[in-house]
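Task card 7
Instruction: Convert sequence to structure tokens.
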Amino acid sequence: LALKKLRMYILRAKTRPAISDLAVNASMGAPLEGQEAVAELAPGLFFSLGPAQVIDLENGNEALLRCVEAGCPWLPKQLYEQPTAHMLSLDLAGGVSLEKGCYVGQEIFIRAHHRGQAKKRAFIIEGPGDPPPDGTEILAEAHGGQVAGNVLYGARTPEGFAALATLRKDAAAQPVELADGRGVRPAAPPYGLLEPQFGQPPAGKAAGPGL
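Output:
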């Protein structure tokens, strides 16, 4: 499926996508030895590129929790191709360039960004009990109990669970609950929820994408 998707974006006839024998490996506390392209995705959580390694992560839940707290939007398979970059707050987290590159939907993305038209954003939600299954629907009282978002993934906490989710902004200030009836508390991720005003580029940036 991944190769099929990549073929849609090939611009040169002689280019052929292939599956690499490299893998993205995660480690806690320190980067893995002999790995390249090391990135500290969340405090103390390192991702690196290299030969696949099987590692026993005793603190696997802690790694997930750090990702939640950092607002890293991992997508479960059941939500592939559903959320937009805005819904995942990739523009607020610095994950999408507003000036460089040329990608599908760039003009629409830039327009929506500067007009503040994103109805859904990434939120951190907290609640009692075990983490809900990935993709669990979130219902909002402000929308008559209708679906207002979805859980991306979650981790256990001493008080219950914390999860990253997509959620309608106008529903976040009202009572929301999971599909199983548990009430949850939405909060902004560390990169915030502030929308740019119409026509205003990010601070220190020139207006308009580099198309």
